[in-house]
Amino acid sequence: MDLEGVIRSHPTKKDSWKTVLTLAYQSLGVVYGDLSTSPLYVYRSTFAEDIHLSETNEEIYGVLSFVFWTITLVPLFKYVFIVLRANDNGEGGTFALYSLLCRHARVSSLPNCQLADEELSEYTKDGIESNKRNIGWRLKLTLEKYRVLQRLLLVLALIGTCMVIGDGVLTPTISVFSAVSGMQFPFPKEQHRYVEVPVACIILVFLFALQHYGTHRVGFLFAPIVITWLFCISAIGVYNIFCWNPYVYQALSPYYMYKFLKKTQSKGWMSLGGILLCITGSEAMFADLGHFSQLSIKIAFTCIVYPSLILAYMGQAAYISKNHDIAKVHPIGFYVSVPDKIRWPVLVIAILAAVVGSQAIITGTFSIIKQCSALGCFPRVKLVHTSSKKHGQIYNPEINWTLMLLCLAVTIGFRDTKRMGNAAGLAIITGMLVTTCLMSLVIVLCWNRSIFLAISFIFFFGSIEALYFSASLIKFLEGAWVPIALSFIFLIVMYVWHYGTLKKYEFDVQSKVSINWLLGLGPGLGIVRVKGIGLIHTELVSGIPAIFSHFVTNLPAFHQVVVFLCIKSVPVPHVRPDERFLVGRVGPKEYRLYRCIARYGYRDIQKDDNEFEKDLVCSIAEFIRSERPAVCVVGTEDTENGEKLTVVGTSSSNVEGIRLCEDDGSISEMVGASELREIKPPEIPRKRVRFVVPESPQIDMDARQELRELMEAREAGLAFIMGHSYVRAKKGSSLMKKIVINFGYDFLRRNFREPTFSLSIPYASTLEVGMIYYV
């Protein structure tokens, strides 16, 4: 079930320069593919607003000045120097910022949080001093007091997430379409789209069709492709600067931005939506931080990507400033500045770079949807692990084909870079605005800095982004409606699912069975106990779920060992394998009822197979071995039900603990370890199970007997018991609640994956029990 590689290969301690430079090299192919291809379409989108070039070149100089300062202020100053520091144990992105705020202000949307979760290694937080005069402390209390503010914070994070998903549709579209626009030159101007659209569609279908194979087989080519592309555009830029206009560097002065807006007025302001595209992919520097390190991403951007992009834009501006008539023949863009002799090789490299950049955003979309699902904000989806060696390479078939259809629809529907750029620009700048807002809260609540510093941050960068946002939003009817429509649909889905899940959990808490009812049944539970392990899947972290009382009161027999299994997410990126499980008893020892809580971070990958069953059984066995009478081992106590939970790691992380061995043949002796085993008759072909106990275990007879029963139950088999819920709004509910629960949530529940499929539970070993929830 676990990819133990979730603990990053580059630890938090200082890496060697060789490691840092290697990570910087690799980040070029993963992080900067999207940003590096922006020169393909920035000038083309900008000059699509009927801006005519004059002999003074104030228009092209003004655009270049805007591009230079936008790249300098947003990706370089904001992200490289500030936002990258706001990482969550090395992880970045919208959910990393939201997770930090949840831990520091207790505004988590997860309903089944426990105090034991705060003892996790990655659950680090720097507390704010409880001083009433401290503005940060008062802000923290305000957020914790008002639920409406917590909902607004969640909605803000979801809006940013929805825009990232929308970017997953628009970025591959505009990148591939702009890359193939180099094929326009042999054809008349009015026939360009008849060539570009079919070729772009073929490449997009090919790109999405290859997703289920994963990128681990060709991933080593990504960095060389992007490096070749960056070298190519920077070399062409230098050539154009010296060949056409060596004085183009003068346009870097901010004064040309003022002259540009003064001369072009409203058209110049609207063209900012095209200039905005020069920072496409900047958010990836923060979102993909978990795969690399701060220093490696900073080195790659400041030393390679930033100067290459500036030279590329300066070279294009230098060429256009001396070739005004080119706009009469071809649209102003990247390929008009490429020398004729190398245009076709550059076209091939551009298409490859666009595919690499699109691949990164598609994989990122899979990851962000997985994180939403982990935090209870998106219906369950099936994740396929495309690589057993590299963490984070996942594939979701439903989302993949949905993205492909949306990409094709946008390509065929728009058929020009202008409207694609309008749509992509709004999605990009909205996500950046969300990051700016969340970042300002992190400065106060997590960094414990002055409120004036947070206000300065949001005022300075927020003003820049608000300017671009207004220029993008004004083009609502010219393509900007696409990310708004997509985000609205995804936001409705996310919030309806989150609301229904929360209400369902509240019903589970209200209807859970009292421990006194269990004690009244006696050790036999009033039924026949048969060999085997019954895993009852529940969202509850304490108490007895109502589904168990249904079994006991309606079935004549039940399993010898019963485990209440809760698989939950916690607001940290990763949970270490040695902190994976919380194990405890439910009721007296002779009842053989256990509670096991498996904890995962929002970036952890659950790989459900036989290893999880082994880890689960071993964690219970280790709990039995280490348990002491009337002593609470390291963990936490549920005071409501008197349950004591122990932190137990996976079998691979607990070298000195109990190990589970299964085979079909004879059991050979193991030197240096004591074994509990049962010899079955040879004529019965059955899997044999044994526990390998550490030397000198000092286990009393009761514990040995309990381990033997657990071993026999594991040999007999394991069954998953899951509730099949039907959620309905209770009588007296408002009309809106009835629509959301009875129609919205029920539609999502019926049309998305059931827990048995999303958790890869064997269908033959599953028993579902229908229950009606009136919420």
Would you give an account of this structure?
The chain is α/β, with parallel strands linked by helices and 775 residues long. It has helices at 17-30, 33-36, 42-46, 58-80, 94-105, 135-145, 147-179, 192-209, 222-244, 255-264, 266-270, 272-275, 283-287, 294-321, 343-374, 397-414, 417-445, 451-473, 481-511, 515-521, 546-554, 610-626, 701-716, 735-751, 755-758, and strands at residues 384-385, 394-395, 528-537, 557-570, 581-585, 593-601, 635-638, 643-648, 659-663, 674-677, 688-693, 718-728, 766-774. Strands 7-8-5-6-4-3-12-13 form an eight-stranded mixed beta sheet. Strands 9-11-10 form a three-stranded antiparallel beta sheet, with helices on one face. Strand 1 and strand 2 (394-395) form a beta hairpin. The protein is elongated, with a radius of gyration of 29 Å. The two termini are 33 Å apart.
Summarize this structure briefly.
This protein has helices at residues 17-30, 33-36, 42-46, 58-80, 94-105, 135-145, 147-179, 192-209, 222-244, 255-264, 266-270, 272-275, 283-287, 294-321, 343-374, 397-414, 417-445, 451-473, 481-511, 515-521, 546-554, 610-626, 701-716, 735-751, 755-758; strands at residues 384-385, 394-395, 528-537, 557-570, 581-585, 593-601, 635-638, 643-648, 659-663, 674-677, 688-693, 718-728, 766-774. The chain is of the alpha/beta class. The longest helix has 33 residues, at 147-179.
Order of strands across the biggest sheet? 7-8-5-6-4-3-12-13
Please count the helical segments: 25
N- and C-termini, Cα separation? 33 Å
Query: Considering DSSP H and I runs of 4 or more, what fraction of the residues is helical?
Result: 40-55%
Low-confidence stretches: 1-13, 630-640, 665-685
